[in-house]
Amino acid sequence: MSKDAQALLPPLDNWRVQFLRLTSFPGPDKLPDSTNWWLESAGEKPESTTVRAKEGLQVQEGPVENGSLRLTVGPLRIDWVLGPPPPEESDPSPRIDVGPLPATLGAFRGMLKRWLSSSTCPHSARLAFGAVLIQPAETLTDANRLMAAYLVESVRIDPAKSRELLYRINRCRPSQSIADRRIINRLNTWSVLMIKRFLVPLLGEANPKVVSLSQGPLLQLELDINTQDDADAPIPQELLPTAFDELVDLGCEIATRGDIP
C-alpha cells in the first residue's frame, strides 16, 4: 500500500473490539493443573467455574476491565476469549463491543503473556490469535467506502451500488520469532453489516409493541492469525510469549494497513 493510500485510513483507535481470542493447541502430554491459570493471569478469581466431566471441559468466566473473560480448557485446545459484558435485563441497549482496540488489546495481551510465561502453561503445538473488530459508519455507502480503502490493492468496490460485501483471504508469512520459521496463516475476513436492535415486550404485557431502538451500518474485520499445524515440533516453551506477540502484531498490521501481502 502506498504511503498516500495508507494516510487516508482511519487511526487504529477507530476499531472497536467485539471479541479477542487466544487459542493454544497443547501437545500430547497431560495438561498441568489449570486451577490457578485465571488467578495468575487476571489477578483475581473467576466469577464462575463449570466442569463438564463427560466432555473433559472446564469453563471459567468473570468480568475483567470493561468486558467479560472466558477460559475454556479441554484436552485438545485451550481458549481465552474476551467479549462484551453480558447484558442486564434493565438495559435496553446492551453493548456490542468491549472498547477501543489499542487499550483493550493491550490489557488482553498483558494478561495472556503472564499465562504463557508461567511455569504451569502447557506445551503448545500451535498458537492462534483471533479478533472480531468493528467500525461504525454513518451510511451503508460510507461503510462500503471504508472497506474499499482497506482493500484498495486487492479489489475494486463501487461503494454506492454494492451490497452484502464479503472478502476473505489468507496471506501466509514465515514466522520471525520461531526458529524453524514455520508458516503463519494471516486469515482476514472483511464484511459490511447492518446492526439492528429491538426492544421486545415481555409475555403478557398489555398492548405489546416491538420497538426499533437503533440501527446502523458497520465495517467488520475478523482475524485468525495462527501457526500452521504441520510443524514437526511444538513451539519452544520460552518462545510462547514472543510468538503470541508476533501473532498480535500481524493482526494489528492488517487492522492498520488493510489487506497487504
**Low-confidence runs (pLDDT<50, min 5 residues)?**
none
- Strand content is 35-45%
Termini separation comes to: 9 Å
Structural class: alpha+beta
What gross morphology would you assign?
Answer: globular
Count the DSSP helices. Answer: 5
**H-E order:** HEHEEEEEHEHEEEEH
* Radius of gyration over C-alpha positions, nearest whole angstrom: 20 Å
Helix content range of the residues, please? 10-25%
**Number of domain modules:** 1
Major sheet attributes: 11 strands, antiparallel
Average pLDDT figure: 88
Count of distinct strands: 11
Question: Could you explain the architecture of this structure?
Answer:
- The chain is of the alpha+beta class and 261 residues long.
- The protein has one domain.
- The protein is 22% helix and 36% strand.
- It has five helices and eleven strands.
- It has helices spanning 3-7, 37-42, 101-117, 140-150, 240-257; strands at 16-26, 48-52, 57-64, 67-73, 78-83, 99-100, 124-136, 166-170, 173-174, 183-199, 211-227.
- A hairpin with a 4-residue loop joins strand 4 (67-73) and strand 5 (78-83).
- The longest helix is centred in the C-terminal third of the chain and has 18 residues, at 240-257.
- It is globular and about 55 Å long.
- The protein starts with a helix and ends with a helix.
